[in-house]
Sequence to fold (375 residues):
Amino acid sequence: MNRKGLSEKDVLSILDKARSKDTSYDKVLSAMCTTPHPVAVKAHMRFIQSNLGDFGLFQGTKELEEKVISLMGGLLGDPHACGYITTGGTESNIQALRTARNLSGKRRPNMIVPSSAHFSFDKVADLLDIEVRKADLDAEFKVDIGSVESLMDDNTAAIVGIAGSTEFGQIDPIDELAELANSHDIFLHVDAAFGGFVVPFLDTKYDFDFSVRGVSSITSDPHKMGLSTIPAGGLLFREEACLLPLEIDTPYLTIRKQHSLTGTRSGAAVAAAYAVITHLGKEGYKKIVDRCMKMTHRLVNEVQEFGITPLIDPVMNIVALDVPDLDDVRKRLRSRGWFTSITRSPRAMRLVIMPHLTEIALTHFISDLKDCLRD
Ligand code: PLP
Fold:
């Protein structure tokens, strides 16, 4: 560490230089986060000192968190859901499965996840010592119920369904998973980290949330399509009792108990989530999702004109395109500034149409993709 402190001007200039190396979102079609809404940024700055790890000191922020959970619960089929704002989808998935494992009381627990599950479930398996069993997908990349059933046994502590899979943007048949969960009295977790702020606003209605009897917990992230600041994930449980396995005594804080995985945690992210959710309201999110979906359909229609097809009709604002010479084409696109991504199996070009993408940028991308196929 430098002995003498640098002037604020010098520090800020170093920061500006570092920031100039970061990618602006303009040409990013691979990310699930986006530029946060300005009202979220303002709220974040106002609560920058707030630590919900010791919420006895931050009662106002704690009340905001309760309101955010109730608002998100309302959007996800149960305004009485309980939970807390996590650091993101990974923490929410870890904590949901920790609850499931502890409630199950199984000595050698396993969980069944779709093979399309986010890699956070591999972290869950390692951290919680739960065996992860990956169920096959059907032709539309939804989890195959028969495969889930065949992987279940007496040690199954949880089943996971996804509402908005990372690679395909597909929604698993949550109602059928719930039937399995109900008939075997097993915990069902829905990972809607991405879809939590998309699916409720789609024109097609899906049964994916607490309105389905048997859904025990849901991950839904304000810092993805919720347009809030990082780090803001949401973990919601149907039953208050699900928080008990996460409870830890905190003798030297102003509070007696904590349920979060992290100790110190951002009150700023909670204030930001509250601000953007109440500012946009259902109408605001609907407009954003409608715009992303319109652009997604435009992309798919226009690339089909030069022979590129999607693996499935897009369900949400994520598309997987069957592109020949995928690696080369992606490299060429990269040299033109575009960030694209891939699906694992089958390998395809994965594109996420986030709110930061403009119609003009999309026009350029489609034309660059066409050129890059020919190069
Ligand atoms: N679950 C799903 C479906 C995701 O798409 C992601 C991230 O892309 C996560 C979980 C992990 O979220 P985070 O990166 O916020 O931890």
